Structure formats: C-alpha cells, structure tokens
Amino acid sequence: MLNRVLIIFAHPLFEKSRINRELVSQVPSQEGITFHDLYELYPDFNIDVEAEKALLLAHDVIIWNHPFYWYSCPALLKQWIDMVLEVGWAYGPGGTALQDKVVMQVLSTGGPQAAYQHGGHNRFTIREFLAPFEQTVRLCRMHYLPPFVVHGAHRLQPAEIRAQSAEYASLLRTLQEEALDVARLSQYTYLNEWIKETKVL
Fold first, then answer.
1. Taking all residues of the chain, what is their mean pLDDT, rounded to a whole number?
2. Structure pTM?
3. For the chain, which residues make up each domain, given as ranges?
4. With contact defined as beta carbons under 8 Å apart, do 137 and 103 qualify?
5. In this predicted structure, what is the pLDDT of residue 1?
6. pLDDT given for residue 90 in this prediction
7. Is the dihedral angle over the CA atoms 123, 140, 146, 52 positive or is it negative?
C-alpha cells in the first residue's frame, strides 16, 4: 500500500528561489502526493483550520518544505503550526488525531554545511536549530525524521542544483513507495545521506 505524502510548502519569495523552483518541479502530479502551497492559498494569512486538519488526516507522511529563515521557518508556516495543531486534537488530553504519522522537513539554507557546526559561523547544527519542530511533532505523537537539506543554495551551480533535485525526487518516490523504518532512518543526520547510500539516482 502506498503512503500518501503531503508537501506543505511555505516560501514567501518562491519566484526568486532557484533551488526551490527546481525542487518543486520534481514533485510528481500523481495520486498519493499532494503539493500544498501555503503562501499561494493564504496570502492574507487567514488559514482555513478545518480544511488543513482534513488534509492532514488524509495523508500518512507530512513534509514541511521551506527555506531556513532566521534559524526557523517563514511566518506563515509558524502560524499554520500554531493554529492547526490544536490542543485536544493534535496533542494534550484526547489529542490523538495525528498519532503515528511521519513528519520531516525539506530545507534550503544560504550558508554552507560547515557554517552549521559547533565552532562554525552559526554555532549550532541544523538539527539543534530544528529541536522545536521535532518536539512539536513528538508532542503530537507523530514520528520525526531527519531533514533533507540543501546547503549554500545561493552558490550552487546548475549541475549541483540538478543533482540535489534528483535526490529530492528519489526521496519522494521512496517516502511514497516504501514502508518506513523510523528507528533506522532516525540514525542519519540528514536524509540526503540515506538517499545517496541506498538509492540509484
């Protein structure tokens, strides 16, 4: 049985992002994969909470796809998290609606991977910066997977962008088609590593 994959995309300057345009171009138009552009749907930030809840319930794997803005996510995705993941529904007493779903993030950063290390320019790792997202997912009784990260997006050459997008396409196919061993996948720092090791691109 195929996993149903929901890509919640949040990029307020999508038309200016080379890497995100290329990544989005790899999302197949097929049953079981839903591309959901928050800034396209909610330019006024007036989120339809009930519609978003229904979308979450209809999918097994949820991807938060966004640029890494100020060590976090764009404002609309943060508002989405604040409004949609309600107490009594997603977490807290009786909040089991999303239990056992799988969540991961697809990120683009301006800085190279070396900048996101202890002693590097940004002082902390990407995984450390993502701790609030991981804890949010765990509080909602879901499973959090390591992120897929494209570093140094502004400096990538066209061939490098194509290589990253091919890895992303492989990731989407795998998330849809395979049973996911959460414990094994959690051992990776980034899911880029897993795709490089195990998939033919």
1. 93
2. 0.95
3. 5-198
4. yes
5. 72
6. 98
7. negative
Q: Which residue has the tokens 């997008």?
A: 165
Fold of the domain spanning 5-198: Rossmann fold (3.40.50)
pLDDT value of residue 200: 53
Handedness of CA 133, 58, 4, 16 (dihedral sign): negative
How many residues are present in the chain?
A: 201
Using a CB cutoff of 8 Å and minimum separation of 24, what contacts does 50-58 make?
Answer: 52/80, 52/84, 53/84, 53/89, 53/97, 55/6, 56/6, 56/84, 56/97, 56/98, 56/101, 57/97, 57/98, 58/4, 58/6
What is the reported pLDDT for 68?
95
pLDDT value for 197: 86
Contact 154, 112 (CB under 8 A): no
Do the beta carbons of residue 191 and residue 146 sit within 8 Å?
yes
- State which H helix or E strand residue 43 sits in: none
Residues in the chain with pLDDT values less than 70: 199-201
Count of alpha carbons within 13 angstroms of residue 97, beta-carbon side: 19
Of the candidates 106, 194, 188, which has an alpha carbon nearest to the alpha carbon of residue 150? 106
The 3-state secondary structure of 104-149, one letter per residue: EEEEECCCCHHHCCCCCCCCCCHHHHCHHHHHHHHHCCCEECCCEE
